Known about the structure:
Keywords: NAD, Oxidoreductase. The chain has about 450 residues and is α/β, with parallel strands linked by helices. Helices cover about 40% and strands about 20% of the residues. It has 2 domains: about 240 residues, Aldehyde Dehydrogenase, Chain A, domain 1 (3-Layer(aba) Sandwich), CATH 3.40.605; about 180 residues, Aldehyde Dehydrogenase, Chain A, domain 2. Strand 5, helix 6 and strand 6 form a beta-alpha-beta unit. Helix 2 runs antiparallel to helix 5 and helix 9 crosses helix 10. Bound molecules: nicotinamide-adenine-dinucleotide (NAD).
Amino acid sequence: MTDTKAAFTLDDTFTSTEATALVNRLRATFRTGRTKPLAWRRQQLTRLRDLLTDNRAAIADALYADLRKNRAEADAMEINTTIVEIDDYLEHLEEWTAPQPATVTVPGVPGSTARTVFDPLGVALVISAWNYPVNLLLVPVAGALAAGNAVVIKPADYAAHTSALLAELLPAYLDTDATAVVEGGAPETTVLLEQHFDHIFYTGNGTVGRIVMTAAAKNLTPVVLELGGKSPVFVDRDADIATVAQRLAQTKFANAGQTCVAPDYVLTDPDTATELEAALVVALKGQFGEDPQTSDAYGRIINERHFDRLSALLDSGRTVTGGQTDRADTYIAPTVLAEVRPDEPVMQEEIFGPILPILTVADLDEAITFINERDKPLALYAFTEDNTTKRRLAAETSSGGLNFGLPMHHLAVPTLPFGGVGQSGMGNYHGRYSIETFSHRKAVLDVPLS
Ligand code: NAD
């Protein structure tokens, strides 16, 4: 019998029978009420935190092997960001899960009370993407646990070293009656998606997002889809260009551009574009030196499939800097392309790699039209000092998040919800928003009988 296994690794078979037994086992635990007390949730969150602090070096090694993430980036963007979320739950768990009193206006019987109660949903499935394979897996898992759920955890298969390490560590730290890890790719996830979950939290691309949502529909299971898209950057002519270039270099090229909220392309007027080209050359040199391939601070493309996909995008526009590739090392240099036209290959899909196209527009009106003619992005960025420009971008565009001045960092503010809209996803999480995502908001009205 395999139905008490807490981790299915790539060496195991994982059939529908095993998946059903696994979900039934976790649901049986959930029904005992074991996951609901705040003490259990607190204990699980603390154990998850211990996992991260006890195994910092091993996690950093796995991330290096998968993505050549340097130690500082692994610490800052994977481990510490997850710890910050966990600490936030530990600090606010009572407050965020407490029933919220409501004013009773109906039925108006004296002595009536009303409140909203956060009920855990049951057994959640969390499916992660490979680009931040620790954070994107464990932050939603922490949210599901904080909300009092049992969880099936599916790490990203492309980040194979990290997946294997987490499959080993998670059962050693978490309550294995209420959590389980299933490693694997499409076949294993397909088997999981045939099961009846109470929530599915998926991070990845929109094609698989549709598969997840279709499978969820069969059981009326709620989903959060954390997808991607082309996140534009508007650079106003009043912005300090050295600062813009430095912040774009810092964010766009982290993790070799493989970040869901990475700036995808720049929209600016022709004069500012010329200035920005030169400033980006300086900023990139400052960040990664003369030869980024030898820089410790620069990552690699996850695999050859993505390397080939990205290499085909390098011919668009005029190369300002970069363009060098090394397939054996899955290396693509930080690349800036200018005079890019909207119909060129690099503008047809989310880049998800270290290539930054600059497109010119006449003014803010044209930029807003350009943005609104395309799918709603996961993030919209603007560098401007002008409050009218900020107000107009906020009022006249739709995106998962809107960030002025420092791309990607809204993601690291746990008091903000993180998620997409339209083609960039649905639902959101982080901090108290994760509690809401993984709970049912139950309306309770209590009317006295006499
Ligand atoms: P991926 O290939 O790791 O896929 C994501 C998950 O889906 C993996 O766990 C994988 O095993 C599973 N999967 C793959 N094919 C499947 C199938 N046919 N059926 C069921 N499951 C399947 O990651 P990806 O999709 O290449 O990730 C990149 C995309 O994810 C980009 O669009 C990026 O913007 C987006 N993303 C979004 C966020 C966010 O938080 N919004 C974060 C990271 C990445």
